[in-house]
Amino acid sequence: MKREIIAGNWKMNCTKAETVELIEKLLPLVGDPGKMEVVICVPFTNIDAARKALRGHKSIALGAQNVHWAPKGAFTGEISAEMLKALKVKYVIIGHSERRQYFGETDQSVNARMKAAVAAGLKVIVCVGETLEEREAGKTREVLLRQTSAAFEGIDKSALKQIVIAYEPVWAIGTGKTATPKEANTAAFVIRKALRKQYGRTPAHAMRVQYGGSMNASNVKELMAMPQIDGGLIGGASLKPAEFAKIVHYTEL
Ligand code: PEP
Q1: Ligand 1 contacts CB of residue 111 (under 6 A)
Q2: Which of 47, 62, 173, 192 is the most exposed place for a label (fewest CB within 10 A)?
Q3: Model's pTM, two decimal places?
Q4: Is the separation of the CB atoms in 179 and 226 below 8 Å?
Q5: What does the DSSP assignment read for 69-88?
Q6: Ligand 1 centre and the CA of 200: distance in Å?
Q7: Which is the closest atom of ligand 1 to the Cα of 216?
């Protein structure tokens, strides 16, 4: 039985003080998440404050939203895997569509960041997903196979347990539009197909695939009921403590 994982992507939101305030509201609402793995991915500047606010609480793990591929050097504005490790960060999101869309992230840079992150012992949430244009052109499958294979190129089978994949259709992120459970399930199946080709059936099946894209307390249950979906990556709703806690405890809804 795979452990399900709900992760919040706070994106570029909250000051240090607001981060602490949000975590203080979230902790009692999340309470004991049972078998659910819960992660919040905060901006770099708030990692230390979040770590302190989460200290002593095993219910929520800490994540970042990007990592550079080089260990150090002349890369102005970037953050290395070792820097994140030093702040006790457990997870890092890589290849989010907003990075691909606005900051020139490519399949190759996603792969380079993945390699650096897993080598440093970080856990990775790697995002893949098609744009609306690609979906309408019937290219969803092709895009998912390409992005997944490229992201995992050169990643050893032994590192797979450190990696979670988020299927995030770009047209569903922050738009209020959600993929239907069937669409999400089919996409996760295609992602696993790419993994199966590279690693074989059992390792591909053992990997966790999240759905992301306007997931909320109203649609979480039907999405999580899909056999290929093992969790959620939540943007907007992760900034609302009561909503996020409901998503974590979706089985009780
Ligand atoms: C995301 O940014 O990963 C995301 C899924 O955002 P939202 O839930 O707001 O669509």
Answers
A1: no
A2: 192
A3: 0.98
A4: no
A5: SSSSSS-TT---HHHHHHTT
A6: 30
A7: 8
pLDDT tens sequence across 45-77 = 999 999 999 999 999 999 999 999 999 999 999
Q: Are strands 208-212 and 91-94 parallel, antiparallel or unpaired?
A: unpaired
Nearest CA owner, ligand 1 atom 1: 235
Residue 203's pLDDT band, with cuts at 50, 70 and 90, is very high
68 annotated active-site: no
Based on the residue annotation, tell me whether 96 is a catalytic residue of this protein.
yes
φ and ψ at residue 211, rounded to 5 degrees: -105, 140
* Beta strands in the chain, from DSSP E residues, in sequence order: 5-9, 37-41, 61-64, 91-94, 123-128, 163-167, 208-212, 231-234
Say if CB 234 and CB 188 are below 8 A apart.
Answer: no
Q: Environment class of residue 75 by beta-carbon count within 10 Å: exposed (0-12), middle (13-18) or buried (19+)? A: exposed
Rounded Cα distance, 11 and 218, in Å = 22
Question: Which phi and psi (to 5°) does residue 216 adopt?
Answer: -150, -175
